[in-house]
Amino acid sequence: MKFFKRLAKYFYDVRVELKKVHWPSRREIGLFTGIVLVTLLVIGLLFWGLDNLFLSILQLIIQA
């Protein structure tokens, strides 16, 4: 029985803590999602560019 009391207290505490959380608004979610997508695009382009650069250097080394 002690297990169920502890489990009930745990879920009660979780609920209390979730009430303290600042949940983002729809506008904030859209803004943060846009920031993440732009960041992913920039980093993806950076890695693509570096990959092509290293490939070109490797091809020059192999041909020499």
Characteristic terms for this protein:
mainly alpha, single chain, 0% strand, 64 residues, elongated
Percentage of residues assigned to helices: over 70%
Radius of gyration, in Å, reads: 25 Å
Order of helices and strands: HH
The termini sit apart by: 78 Å
Question: What does the largest sheet look like?
Answer: none
Number of strands: 0
Shape: elongated
Strand content: under 5%
**Average predicted local confidence, pLDDT:** 95
Can you walk through the features of this model?
The chain is an all-alpha fold. The N and C termini lie far apart (78 Å). 89% of the residues lie in helices and 0% in strands. The chain has a domain at 24-64. It is elongated.
Please give the structural blueprint:
Blueprint: H1 2-20, H2 26-63
What is the gist of this entry?
The protein is built from 2 helices and no strands. The chain has helices spanning 2-20, 26-63.
